[in-house]
Amino acid sequence: MAQSPPSPDDGDFPARSAPHCRELGELDAQVAQCRACPRLVAWREEVAETKRAAFRDWDYWGRPVPGFGPPDAALAVVGLAPAAHGGNRTGRMFTGDASGDILFAALHAVGLASRPDSTHRGDGLKLRGVRVTAPVHCAPPQNKPTPAERDACRPWLARELELLSPTLRAVVVLGAFGWQALLPVLSEAGWQLPRPRPVFAHGAQVTLPGRGERRELHLLGCYHPSQRNTFTGLLTLPMVVDVFRHAADITGLDQ
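-> structure tokens emitted (255 positions)
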């Protein structure tokens, strides 16, 4: 008997849907439908309904936020999850919040973004050779997804990297959460990880050797551009620019 199509409300919707997506546009459309994690669904929709006073005139996105960038990207940027009043409001990763202000200013400084800020989906921002995504696609309460939510969302990231793999040469990982979430995805996708597994640090660089259909891949660590990190001076814009300048050099995007 043929198996019924997965429902967006099913807990295994990502696992059953992601592997069948043949291109990133299809994957993005499936991600935006997902309702697999009840806690995240309830939170993102509550935030979209109550809104923040500064954005009371906005029609919040209130759904999972897909990745953003061209399908032939040589560089992927992996964050944590959309912000409640950032990506969850605008519908685009790192758009409309302070973290995005730092990220896109850095990308623009090295010629990888067409403008230094990202305010809404129709603002004209274009990324050159870069795809921005996250291991969790819904805004979580207190910016803290549970391990179960991270694991439920993992098939989306796995398929996204699979579809990018013909051109992907490097990944900049923003923060320890993204680093820890990404490593098992890469291992399952066929890249060989060193033992012991590499530890996250700002400025960390790990080269995963090519194997089979997988070409050599460079992992670069960068502190997450959260307000906590930037307000305390742990992370500055020049530090982020340095990471992306190095990533552009590795991938040939600096040419």
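The radius of gyration is 17 Å.
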